[in-house]
Structures are given as structure tokens and as C-alpha cells.
Amino acid sequence: MRLYGTVRQQSVSFWACSFLCVLLVWCYPDGFIGSADGAQLRLRKELLIRQSDRALITVMGRVEYVETVPEQEDCSLQASVRVAEIRVAVVGEWINACSTKLEPTEIAALTENGEVPIEGVFRIWFEWAGGKDDVLSEENEVGPYSDSNPKHAIEIDPVVLVGQRQFYDTVRAMEWFDFNVHGMPALQRLLKRKVTIDGYDADDGTSYVAIESGGSLPNHFQLKAVLKSRPTKTEDGYSAVIDIMDKQKTVAPGIRVFTIGGTKANDSLKSLKRNAEFSFWGITRLDGKKALKALEDDAGYHIPIPLEFVLLDIHK
Length: 316
Prior knowledge:
This protein is of the alpha+beta class and 316 residues long. The chain has 2 domains: 39-170; 188-209 and 217-315, CATH 2.40.50.140. It has helices at residues 7-27, 45-51, 104-110, 184-190, 264-270, 288-296; strands spanning 39-44, 56-68, 77-83, 90-94, 116-128, 135-137, 152-162, 165-166, 194-201, 207-213, 220-227, 232-233, 238-246, 249-258, 277-286, 303-304, 307-315. The chain has a 5-stranded mixed beta sheet. A 5-stranded mixed beta barrel has the order 2-3-4-7-5. The protein has a 5-stranded mixed barrel with strand order 11-13-14-17-15. Strand 13 and strand 14 (249-258) form a beta hairpin.
């Protein structure tokens, strides 16, 4: 039995494989298009239900490590946040930190005397959750943080309130001149990504939702849309359903969007009429309502990622 080819054959095979790997990375920089073999988040079902029709979450917590994200990336501050209401690692982000000249020391000082109210967008998203052997579960105790960006699949991003200090004025389109906002090509890749959603009951009777996803998912998008439903008031802003468009073609129908009360995007959305065309800046997150529906229908295996947007800015 012949086990090995000639040196020349092995060399050709090596370079062919290398070229294919480079091509895949170039074509799919956000990760393999069908990947659902990634980290797993296990959170209480009641938490997902409670947050599925609103933008914000309010928790009591404190920041532990705060750092500046490099300007060529998000131009934001990020912090590891310890909260009792969410039993897995949580990261908070303050956007537009460059233009507002927000410093890490300012954020750290806000909780130096103990836990305070922290409010911001509740965001399930597998940007930095780890690999296929990583399980982030609310059944386990959260370990000590060692930096501002632990493995996580839940963020409070953007943060709009810490203690008595508000950050609503930072909720707008990214102002840094070389900010890498994503557009239609990245969205089309994202729509091909897969997740698996399952449910189970723990020994104490608590119901959990398990979400498995590959990582490196993109965060910020600038896209065009058509409003398909009248904006309706939520507990902390407005929500609506949009179709995302590429020229005159519908690329992603029936996508939910949310706004945050007290922001310009909120005022803009509630003034729009049905079938209005507009462009928006938005931050991605998992659509909790669609995730729960997939779980209810026992149809959550290897499905396209259910996504929605929280709007940062709107241009009519």
C-alpha cells in the first residue's frame, strides 16, 4: 500500500492547500460561512424572555478592568463588568470614546465605592466567546476577571448610564474617520452563518437556553432599509420591522430594529411612516424573540443566525 507521494507531489499539495486556506480567509473574514461548531452560551430562559422585546437592561454592578479599544477598531472603551443579575462574564462598551474624550479612569471611578446601576443595550453576540470547547453557563460561578475583555457572549453595549452619569449623547454614528463600519458584503456573509439553539431544565427546575455559535461576528453596520411596520413604543424606546435592501432588492426581510429613548435615532424612527426608505447605523445582536420561537418549535438546529439591530443613527 502506498502511503506517501513523491516530494514534488507533496509540495504541490501543500501549496494548493495553503492557497485554499488563504482564499477562504479572504472570502470569509468573519469566519466560515456555515459554522455553528463554536462556543456555547447557556442562560436562563426567563432572562431571554424578559429582554426579548426591549433594547436596554438595567443591572447593579461594578466595572473591574477598563481599557481603550484601539482607535482603528471601535474607538471605544471596554470593561469587564460583574453583575449579580447575569451569571456569566459580561463586557460593557462605551462608544465614541475618542470624540467625547472619555478616559478609562473616569469609568473606573464611577464604581470604585461599590455596585451602582448600570444600563445599556443587552446584547447577545458571539464576537469573543471562545472556541468549541468553551461553555459560558449561568449554572456556573463567574470566575475572576484578568482583563477588560474576557471570553463572553453577553455585552452591555453601548452603555448609557453608570450610577448618576449618563452617556446617551454617545449613541450615534461612529465619528472616527477610519472606523471600519460593515456594509452589504459583510451582511450577506453574516446571513449565511449558522447557530444552534436548544433548551433544557437543570436539576433545580430552572429552564435554560443553550446557544451555540462560531465567533468573530461583525458588530456595526451601515445599511439601507424600508420600514415595514409602524414603530411601536417599548419600555425604553421604539421598535419596528424593516426589510434591508441592496438597491431595489430585498436582502434581509422581516428584521427587527430597536431604538433607545432619549437618542436622536429614537426620535427619527418614531417619525417615520410605513414604507419609508432610510439608511441607518446599527449594532447587531441576537433576536431573542426568534430564538425563543425556534426553541418552541423544536427547530433550532443549525439555523441561520436570527439577528436584529439597535439603531445608533438614521438618515432619511
